[in-house]
Amino acid sequence: MEFEKLQMIIAEVLGKDPEQITAEARFVEDLGADSLEVFQMVMGMEDAFDVILEEDVIYQVKRVQDLFDLVTNHGD
Q1: CA–CA distance, 8 with 56 (Å, rounded to integer)
Q2: Are the C-beta atoms of residues 10 and 41 closer than 8 Å to each other?
Q3: Which of 8, 22, 38, 62 is deepest in the core (most CB within 10 A)?
Q4: In whole angstroms, what is the distance from residue 2 CA to residue 48 CA?
Q5: Which ranges in the chain belong to alpha helices (H)?
Q6: pLDDT one-digit tens code per residue, 8-49
């Protein structure tokens, strides 16, 4: 699983340059994402990485690294 793939999904949903999507970037404060965009990103992650993420855990995601960790650790 590659961080670059995650960057591309987030950049596409938010209309940002992938280089702006850093591991420490916060979705709301730094990238300007709203709740619908976060939901779209999660759906994109689920499709791209063939996982299903629990809704209660998704609400704890604040940074790009949090989402990456959630997806890469899914099933552990």
Answers
A1: 25
A2: yes
A3: 38
A4: 11
A5: 3-14, 35-49, 55-58, 64-72
A6: 999 999 999 999 999 999 999 999 999 889 888 888 888 988
- Give dist(CA 48, CA 31) in Å, integer: 21
- Asked if residue 32 lies in contact with residue 73, where contact means CB atoms within 8 angstroms, the answer is no
Return the structure tokens found at 24.
């420490």
Which residues are known catalytic residues?
A: 34
Q: For the whole model, what pTM was predicted?
A: 0.85
Residues 6+ apart with CB under 8 A from 48: 5, 9
d(CA 22, CA 52): 23
3-state secondary structure of 1: coil
